[in-house]
Design a protein that fits this description.
The complex is a heterodimer of chains A (884) and B (113).
Chain A: H1 2-14, H2 19-41, H3 46-57, H4 60-70, H5 75-92, H6 94-123, E1 134-139, H7 149-158, E2 166-176, E3 182-189, H8 193-197, E4 203-204, E5 220-223, H9 225-231, E6 242-245, E7 248-255, E8 271-274, H10 278-282, E9 297-301, H11 308-325, E10 335-338, H12 345-383, H13 385-393, H14 398-433, H15 450-468, H16 472-477, H17 480-486, H18 498-529, E11 539-545, H19 555-568, E12 573-579, E13 590-595, E14 608-615, H20 619-623, E15 627-630, E16 644-648, H21 649-656, H22 659-662, E17 666-668, E18 674-681, E19 696-700, E20 708-715, H23 723-733, E21 739-743, H24 744-747, H25 749-787, H26 789-797, H27 802-835, H28 847-873, H29 877-883
Parallel strand pairs in A: 3-8, 5-7, 14-19, 16-18
Antiparallel strand pairs in A: 1-9, 1-10, 2-3, 2-6, 2-9, 4-7, 5-8, 6-7, 11-20, 11-21, 12-20, 13-14, 13-17, 15-18, 16-19, 17-18
Chain B: H1 11-21, E1 25-26, H2 27-37, H3 49-58, E2 62-68, E3 74-80, H4 82-106
Antiparallel strand pairs in B: 1-3, 2-3
Helix pairs in contact in B: 1-2, 1-4
Classes of the chains: A alpha+beta (884), B alpha+beta (113).
C-alpha cells in the first residue's frame, strides 16, 4: 500500500490531475450543499439533510467519470485511472504477475538482442561520409572479393564510374616503439584510401596517393584512435615519431577520428600502413603479380548520378579487356557490387542468413510468449468472470472492462519489456567489447541505439495488444445475470477452446526451438569429433613471423631448421615440424594446379584449386597426419634436388584418377613448375569444418620457402608444461623474434567460432523455448486443477484411485502437450534443413535428436505438471466440501 | 411517483437549454427550474445532470462562470451562448414537428386509413 500511496500524488503531479478535476469536484460538492440547504430549510436536521442530499445525488464517482468523458475524456487521466486499477489488480496476484513479466522479459529481451546485432551488422550504414554510395567489388560468379594489385590499378585508372577506387589488405606486424616489441593488426591500404573514403584526420595528417613512389617508398603510419588511446595515452606529440615495424623505421603521421575503424565492421585494426611497403610488412612483395590476388577488397564511392548497373557495365568492359590482354592470369573478370562493411557476400551471406534465422526464432519465442500469456489471461478472465459480471451488473460498461484488461496487458508488457530491454542492452554492451578470438582482431560491433529502443517498444505494445485481446471475446459474451446466478464453477467443457489451441501452438513453437537447438548442438559435437586430418591434442603451436625479425630469402629456411632442431632437443618432445599456416586457420592458402599434359596454363584450364602448405619434413609426424603410401619429405628435398610434393587422397583422386597412378606422377603449378608426387596422406579439413573433401598439397619449405612459420611441437605429456622450455629454445636462436605459443586446441577456436556461436545462440533460444513451455503447461495444469477442485474432491470422496484423479485433473493438459510436441517436432525437423547450411553435419534425421526431443518434452511435461499433480493428489474431500 | 414521466433519450439536453435560456442558473438551479417548468412531471437523477452540462459546455452551447448563489454559496452558473440559443430554437422546432407528427399518428381513427 505504501508504494501506491507514494505513487498516487506522483502520477497526479505528473499528469496534472488538472484544474478541471478540482473544479468538477467543487461543483458537485456545491450542488450537494445547495440541496442540503433546501432540505434543511424544509425542516430536516443538518446532518440528515447532508446525508440525504448525497444519497439523492447518486453515485458520485460514476458521474465524475462520466463528466470526464463528456469533457472529451482527458485521455491521460482515464489511462492513469485504468493503470492504477490494473496495478491494484495485479498486486493481488503476484505469482501470475511475476510469471507474466518474466516471460515477456525473456521474449522481448531476446528479440532486442537479435535485433541489436542485426542493426549493428546489417542495417546501420558504415561510419563514413555518404556511406550509401560506397561499394566494394566482387569478381566472377563465385563472388570473390580478392583482387590482384595490377588488376586494381587498371580498374582504378580506367573506370569512369567511381570517385576513385581504394584497396586494402589485413596483415599483422611486429611493432617496436622503443621498449617492448609486440604484435599488431594493421590494414595495408593504397595511398588514396582516406581520400576515397572522405575521412579527415583527428590529429596530424593522413597519407595520400602522392606519398607513394613504388616499393617501400611510404614508411608511414596512421593510428586508430583506440590504439593511440591505449598505446600512446592520447599523446598529441606522437605525430612525427618514428617507430620500428618489423625493424624498419616508420613515421606516425596522424590519428584517425574515434568513430572510424576501417571499413570491415568486424575487424578492429591498430593502424594503417601504405600497401606499397608490403615487402617490409609481410616479407614479400606481391604487388607486381597479376595472378596473385592478395588484395582483400577494392572499393569506392560511385560518382554522382552513376547507377550501380552502369558502374558494373563499365567495370565489366575493363574486365573483358584484361581477360584478353592477360589470358594467363585473368579469367572470369566480371564484376558485381557489394556493401563493403561485411567483406563480400561469402561472409555477409551466411551472417545475414543466420541472423535472419535467429530473428525468426526470436519472433517465434515472442509468439510463444504471447500465446502463453494469452492463455493465462484467458484463464484469469474466466476465473474473474464473477468479478467482471458484478462490475457489469453494477453499471460498468463492457468498454470500460475491456479497457482495464488491456491496461493490465500493456502494463505487464511494459514492465516485462523494460526489464528485457535493460538486460539486452547489458548483453549487447558486453558483446561489443568482447574479443572472441585470441588470434585475430575480431569484434562484434553492436551498440544499442534508439532503433533498438523503438523496436522493443513496438514489440511491447504489439505483444501487449496480442495477448490482451484473447480474453476480450470472453468478456463480451459474459452475461452478468447468468454468471452471478450460477456461480463460477462453470461447466467442464470437452470442446477445444481458444485456450487449448493457444497452448498447442505455444508448445509446438517451443518444440521447434528445442528441436533446432538439439540439432545444432549435435552438429557441433559431431564436427568436434570428425577427422580433421591432424591431431590437435598434445600439440603446441609456436607462431612466428620471421619477416618481423628481418629474415628474408634464403635465411628463412636456415632459421626454420635451426629452431626446429632446438625445439626437438627439449625433453618430452616427440617431434617438431613447421607449416606456413596451420589447417583450419582463417581459410587456407590455395593455388590452381594443372595436369602434366596441360600446356596452356590459363586459369580456365586448371584441373583443380588445391590447398597449399609449405612444410618441414617432420610436419606430418608432428601434426599426426598419417601417410597412406609413398614417402614423406626429408631435408634432402632442397633446392638442388627435383621438385616434389606430398598430396592428399582427394588430390590424387581428382588430378590423377587414383592413388596408385598419383604416386610418382607429375603435375604442374601455374608458373609451369613440374612437381612429382612422392607420397599420399589422408584427407583433412583445411578451410573450414563444413567443407567437402578438398584437394591439398604439401611442399617442402626448402623448395618453396615461406617466412610465415608455425612450429608444431608434439609431446608425450601435457604440452602446456613445455611452454617455458619452448620459449627458452626459440629465444636462444634469436631473442628479437616475436612469437606466440598456443595449444592447437586453442588455435582451433577460430575455426569453431562460427558453429559455436550458432550453437550457443540456438541453445539459448531452445532453453527459452523449454522454459516457456514449462510455464505454459504449468499455468494450464494448475488452472485446470484449481477450477475442478470440487469435482475432484467429489471423485476422491466417491473412491477414485490416484491414477484416476490424475487422469481427470491433468489428462487434458498432457494430451495438449503431446499434440503440441508432435507437431512441433515435425515442424522442427523441417526447419532444421535450414540449419544444415549453418551448422556442420546438422541433420534432423538423427535418432538421438528425435529421441532427445521426445525425452525433453516429456521431462518438461513432468516438471511442469508436478506441482499441480501434487495439489490434485493432496485433495482432502472433507475440508474441500466443507469450505465450498 | 406514477405521474412522473421517463425522460426520452436525448431530451435532457433540450430541457437544460430551455431552463438556462430563462436566465443564468447553477446546476441545482437547473434541476429546480426543470422541475418547476415541467410541473414536476419529469424525473431527473441529480448527478446525471452534470455529464450533460459538461457536454453542452464542451459543444460551446453553454458557458459557465463561478458566482455566488442566493444563499451565499459558491456555485457555477451556466448561461446560453449564441450557438446555444440557435440550437435551442432548432431543437424546439424539431421537437414540435416530431410531437405534432406523433400526435396526429396517434389520433388516427380506423376510417381515416
Amino acid at each position: 500500500m505504501k508504494l501506491l500511496g507514494w505513487f498516487r500524488p506522483v502520477t497526479a503531479k505528473l499528469f496534472h490531475r488538472s484544474e478541471t478535476a478540482i473544479d468538477m469536484e467543487e461543483e458537485l460538492h456545491s450542488h450537494i450543499q445547495l440541496r442540503a440547504d433546501d432540505l434543511e430549510r424544509s425542516g430536516v436536521p443538518h446532518a440528515e439533510a447532508e446525508r440525504r442530499a448525497r444519497i439523492e445525488f447518486g453515485s458520485h464517482e460514476r458521474f465524475k467519470e462520466e463528466c470526464h468523458e463528456a469533457l472529451g475524456g482527458n485521455l491521460v487521466e482515464t489511462l492513469v485511472n485504468d493503470f492504477r486499477f490494473s496495478l491494484r489488480v495485479l498486486r493481488k496476484s503476484p505469482v501470475f504477475t511475476f510469471a507474466a513479466v518474466f516471460t515477456l522479459a525473456l521474449a522481448i529481451g531476446s528479440n532486442s538482442v537479435v535485433f541489436g546485432v542485426i542493426e549493428g551488422l546489417i542495417l546501420r550504414p558504415l561510419h563514413v561520409p555518404q556511406a550509401e554510395s560506397l561499394w566494394g567489388l566482387e569478381r566472377g560468379s563465385d563472388k570473390a572479393v580478392n583482387q590482384s594489385y595490377p588488376d586494381y590499378l587498371d580498374l582504378r585508372d580506367r573506370n569512369r564510374s567511381f570517385d576513385g577506387l581504394a584497396a586494402y589488405n589485413v596483415a599483422d606486424v611486429g611493432i617496436d616503439t622503443g621498449n617492448n616489441p609486440s604484435g599488431a593488426w594493421i590494414v595495408e591500404t593504397t595511398g588514396n584510401y582516406f581520400d576515397v573514403l572522405r575521412i579527415q584526420p583527428y590529429i596530424g595528417r593522413f597519407f595520400h596517393a602522392s606519398d607513394e613512389y613504388g616499393p617501400n617508398s611510404a614508411p608511414f603510419i596512421v593510428l586508430t584512435y583506440a590504439y593511440w588511446h591505449t598505446h600512446f595515452q592520447d599523446d598529441r606529440g606522437v605525430v612525427g615519431r618514428v617507430v620500428q615495424l618489423n625493424k624498419h623505421p616508420f613515421t606516425i603521421l596522424g590519428v584517425a577520428p574515434p568513430d572510424f575503424q576501417g571499413t570491415l565492421l568486424f575487424v578492429a585494426p591498430d593502424f594503417w600502413v601504405p600497401i606499397v611497403n608490403q615487402e617490409q610488412i609481410e616479407g614479400t612483395y606481391m604487388l607486381n603479380a597479376r595472378g596473385t590476388r592478395e588484395i582483400l577488397m577494392v572499393m569506392g564511392h560511385l560518382k554522382a548520378g552513376v547507377t550501380p548497373a552502369q558502374a558494373i557495365a563499365d567495370l565489366n568492359s575493363i574486365g573483358a579487356d584484361l581477360e584478353k590482354s592477360y589470358p594467363k592470369d585473368d579469367g572470369h573478370m566480371t564484376f558485381s557490387l557489394v556493401r563493403p562493411s561485411l567483406s563480400g557476400d561469402w561472409i555477409a551471406g551466411p551472417i545475414r542468413a543466420f541472423l535472419t534465422g535467429l530473428m525468426l526464432l526470436a519472433a517465434l519465442i515472442l509468439l510463444a510468449a504471447c500465446a502463453n500469456l494469452g492463455s493465462l489471461f484467458a484463464a484469469r478472465a474466466a476465473d474473474r468472470s464473477r468479478e467482471v459480471a458484478l462490475r457489469l451488473a453494477l453499471g460498468s460498461s463492457h468498454k470500460r472492462i475491456i479497457r482495464s484488461l488491456f491496461a493490465e496487458a500493456v502494463l505487464i508488457s511494459l514492465v516485462g519489456g523494460a526489464i528485457g530491454l535493460w538486460a539486452s542492452i547489458g548483453l549487447l554492451r558486453g558483446l561489443s567489447v568482447w574479443e572472441p578470438l585470441p588470434t585475430a582482431p575480431v569484434r562484434i560491433p553492436v551498440k544499442p541505439d534508439a532503433n533498438v529502443f523503438l523496436f522493443a517498444l513496438l514489440l511491447v505494445l504489439a505483444s501487449g495488444f496480442l495477448f490482451g485481446i484473447v480474453p476480450v471475446r470472453q468478456v463480451l459474451r459474459a452475461n452478468p445475470y447468468e454468471v452471478v446466478k450460477a456461480g463460477s464453477s462453470g461447466r467442464v467443457g470437452r470442446r477445444m477452446t481458444v485456450r487449448d489451441v493457444l497452448l498447442v501452438v505455444q508448445i509446438a513453437i517451443c518444440a521447434v526451438l528445442v528441436t533446432s537447438s538439439m540439432v545444432a548442438v549435435r552438429g557441433l559435437v559431431r564436427s568436434l569429433h570428425s577427422n580433421f586430418g591432424f591431431e590437435p591434442r598434445n600439440a603446441m603451436l609456436v607462431e612466428t613471423a620471421l619477416s618481423m625479425a628481418g629474415y628474408s630469402g634464403d635465411s628463412v629456411p636456415v632459421m626454420q631448421k635451426r629452431i626446429i632442431e632446438a625445439l626437438a632437443t627439449i625433453p618430452g618432445v616427440e617431434s617438431v615440424g613447421s607449416v606456413d599456416r596451420p589447417p583450419l586457420y582463417y581459410g587456407a592458402n590455395s593455388s590452381t594446379v594443372f595436369t602434366d599434359k596441360t600446356a596452356d596454363l590459363r586459369p580456365s584450364n586448371a584441373a583443380a584449386e588445391a590447398a597449399m602448405y609449405n612444410i618441414s619434413p617432420e610436419y606430418f609426424h608432428a601434426a599426426g597426419t598419417s601417410l597412406l603410401s609413398g614417402r614423406s619429405l626429408t631435408w634432402h628435398d632442397d633446392k638442388n634436388s627435383p621438385r616434389v610434393a606430398v598430396v592428399n587422397r582427394q588430390f590424387a583422386k581428382q588430378i590423377f584418377g587414383s592413388e596408385s597412378r598419383a604416386l610418382g606422377g607429375y603435375y604442374k603449378m601455374p608458373d609451369g613448375t613440374r612437381l612429382q608426387v612422392i607420397g599420399i596422406v589422408e584427407d583433412g579439413k583445411y578451410g573450414h569444418l563444413a567443407e567437402d573433401p578438398q584437394p591439398a598439397m604439401f611442399l617442402p619449405i626448402q623448395q618453396s620457402p615461406s617466412s610465415s612459420t608455425v612450429f608444431v611441437v608434439r609431446s608425450d605429456r601435457d604440452p602446456q608444461q613445455l611452454v617455458a622450455a619452448i620459449k627458452k629454445a626459440v629465444q636462444g636462436q634469436d631473442a628479437g623474434l616475436p612469437f606466440e605459443i598456443r595449444s592447437w586446441n586453442q588455435e582451433l577456436d577460430s575455426a569453431l567460432f562460427g558453429p559455436r556461436m550458432a550453437t550457443v545462440a540456438l541453445g539459448v533460444l531452445g532453453m527459452m523455448g523449454a522454459m516457456l513451455s514449462i510455464t505454459g503447461i504449468f499455468g494450464i495444469a494448475a488452472y485446470s486443477v484449481s477450477r475442478r477442485l470440487r469435482e475432484l474432491g467429489i471423485r476422491v470422496a466417491l473412491g477414485a484411485q490416484r491414477s484416476e484423479v490424475l487422469q481427470a485433473a491433468l489428462g487434458r493438459a498432457l494430451m495438449l502437450l503431446a499434440i503440441g510436441s508432435l507437431s512441433g517436432l515435425v515442424l522442427g525437423i523441417l526447419a532444421s534443413r535450414v540449419l544444415a547450411f549453418i551448422v556442420y553435419q546438422a541433420t534432423p534425421r538423427d535418432p538421438l535428436v528425435l529421441g532427445g526431443v521426445v525425452v525433453a518434452m516429456s521431462l518438461l511435461g513432468v516438471v511442469a505438471t508436478w506441482i499441480p499433480a501434487q495439489r490434485a493428489l493432496a485433495i482432502d474431500p472433507v475440508t474441500l466440501l466443507r469450505e465450498e | 411517483m406514477t405521474d412522473q414521466a421517463q425522460l426520452l433519450p436525448g431530451t435532457l439536453d433540450l430541457l437544460i437549454l430551455k431552463a438556462v435560456s430563462l436566465g443564468p442558473l447553477h446546476g441545482y438551479g437547473v434541476l429546480l427550474r426543470i422541475g418547476q417548468i415541467s410541473g414536476r412531471a419529469l424525473l431527473i437523477e441529480q448527478g446525471a445532470l452534470y455529464p450533460a452540462l459538461f457536454r453542452l459546455v464542451r459543444q460551446g452551447l453553454l458557458k459557465a462562470n463561478w458566482g455566488t448563489s442566493e444563499n451565499n454559496r459558491r456555485a457555477k452558473f451556466y448561461e446560453l451562448t449564441s450557438a446555444g440559443r440557435k440550437r435551442l430554437r432548432e431543437e424546439t422546432d424539431g421537437w414540435n414537428r416530431l410531437t405534432a407528427a406523433i400526435d396526429s399518428a396517434l389520433a388516427a381513427r380506423p376510417e381515416e386509413t
